[in-house]
Amino acid sequence: MAEHRKKFTDYDQPAVAVDLALMTVSRGVLQVMVMRRRDADRVGGEWALPGGFVHVDVTLEDTVADVLRKKANLQDVYLEQVGTFGALDRDPRGRVISVAYFALTPGARIETAVAERDDLDLMTVRVAWQGEAGGPVELIGSDNRVADLAFDHAMLIGHVVARLRGKLDYTAIGLELLPAKFTLNDVQTIHEAILGRSLSKPPFRRKLLDRGLIVATGEFRSGAAHRPAELYRRKA
User: Does pTM surpass 0.85?
Assistant: First the structure.
């Protein structure tokens, strides 16, 4: 007797979604874009990361690109997959597995994108843990109140922060948050905002220059009351 084999349709089909944590550093603090949910009573929170469901004929990459363009109002940013979140109770509407991504862009770009939409906001990320341990975070709105986040997005953003902290020391990922030309102080501000602690200027700058990731442009930032700061760019 032939062994009975289950068909693909015999298995439950959970929904698959993508969520996008679009991060930046603005005014010296780490921030993330969030979207206001009109169905807060159904999803368990007023704010959430931009996201969307994956259709059977669309790739993950195309889905997150669509979310970036249509919901986050941005294109052409650094994008990286951070992990998969599949807790049974993560979405009160039903069984949803989410593939999480983070995107990085300079503060000016994301501030412009947010200003053009009435359902987007940029909130400060408050982290209660140090190092790369990870854990949930809190988002602080412009009214200095803790935002009511839906789903497991507080934990998801925490994973993104931990990933960024882990990659700062061996990649040029922090430079994705800077414009084409920047000062050494700009780079240090980015690192301090992500790490959540101050860094000693001389050793940080020495290590940064020794890594050979940036080169001097020969230009200086004008308009400052003190000595103009030299401008750098990423090494080609």
Answer: yes
